[in-house]
Amino acid sequence: AQKVTQAQTEISVVEKEDVTLDCVYETRDTTYYLFWYKQPPSGELVFLIRRNSFDEQNEISGRYSWNFQKSTSSFNFTITASQVVDSAVYFCALNQAGTALIFGKGTTLSVSS
Amino acid sequence: DAGITQSPRYKITETGRQVTLMCHQTWSHSYMFWYRQDLGHGLRLIYYSAAADITEKGEVPDGYVVSRSKTENFPLTLESATRSQTSVYFCASKTTSMSSDTQYFGPGTRLTVL
To answer: Which of A3, A32, A47, B66 is 20 to 30 A from A91, alpha carbon to alpha carbon?
Structure first.
């Protein structure tokens, strides 16, 4: 069965702190894709990144970085030097079967100034 | 404007009433999806459609009906709304059935059933 676990329900940090959001997934397939979405207070879902199961290279985009480790079935998301605008709910999701996404329950990140 | 839109953005209805949530996309994406978002559950799939006139149930389909007569539209109907259907509903679309395809989401509809 497919499953995505985001064990951290809420995280609070102060601006400029680094923060890592954890994502652990379960799947029996060898080919799958992992995604991160951001949901700011305005409510829309914004696509951040997609990673396939054959590419374990870490990815960096500005202050955002992602660490994918198949050995631990994890796809963690780090924000460096957090800012107030990073406050949002972050969702990790898995797509194995080709159609719908399996979402984690989300992590609410609060960044205070 | 190009993209995926949902209407209404907010809706209050009463138990037992029928309500339809609209979803429209301008990308000509084949696949469209309806999810609901509830505290403590993340997003859960209600229904999806691979093409016009093709629909499939998701994880939580009970109490919902969908149709897809045109590729660009994917309405979701609650035939007899219940309080447990109070939620935020998101429509999404993607190009193909490939797992690699990114799903893009509409702005959501916040539905309250009194």
So the answer is: B66
